[in-house]
Amino acid sequence: MATLQAPDGVLPLVGLTQALGQLPHLQVDAPLALAVRQGKAIAWSQLAAAAGEGAAPVATIEGRFQILGPGGGLLAVAERGSDGTVRSLRVFNDVQTSAESPKRASV
């Protein structure tokens, strides 16, 4: 089996948002990011209203898309449900956004 090698011997690391760059994205604010991370039901209209700058035009999104937190980190890969909700397929712990969320008390 051949070994992967870069010319300088170092392979680049690729972040999740870059690796999923073919998917459109919507960036959300902190309260909605928390709801995504907690697995709460989110209406498509709520997500569309919260979409930040640089996001794909909401009307053009079909199929899977990325939900990015306020810091630009990947929160979830989701798709629009036929019932007007957002269906999260995979949810990730966005470290940048998680720093803004309430901390658990240590025991």
Task: Explain how this protein is built.
With 107 residues, the chain is an alpha+beta fold. It has a single domain, classed as PUA domain (Archaeosine Trna-guanine Transglycosylase, Chain: A, domain 4, Roll). The protein is 21% helix and 20% strand. It is built from four helices and four strands, in the order αβααβββα. The protein has a four-stranded mixed β-sheet, with helices on one face. The longest helix is centred in the first third of the chain and has 8 residues. About 7% of the residues have low confidence.
CATH H-level name... which superfamily? PUA domain
Distance between the termini: 49 Å
Number of domains: 1
User: Which spans of ≥5 residues are poorly predicted at pLDDT below 50?
Assistant: 97-103
Helix percentage = 10-25%
Mean pLDDT: 79
User: Which CATH architecture would you pick?
Assistant: Roll
Q: Got a strand count?
A: 4
Structural class call reads alpha+beta
**CATH fold annotation:** Archaeosine Trna-guanine Transglycosylase, Chain: A, domain 4
Shape: elongated
Order of helices and strands: HEHHEEEH
Quick overview:
This protein is α+β, with helices and mostly antiparallel strands and 107 residues long.
Q: Could you list some keywords that capture this structure?
A:
107 residues, 4 helices, alpha+beta, Archaeosine Trna-guanine Transglycosylase, Chain: A, domain 4, 21% helix, four-stranded mixed sheet, elongated
Fold topology:
Elements: H1 16-19, E1 25-27, H2 30-37, H3 44-50, E2 64-68, E3 74-80, E4 86-91, H4 95-98
Parallel strand pairs: 1-2
Antiparallel strand pairs: 2-3, 3-4
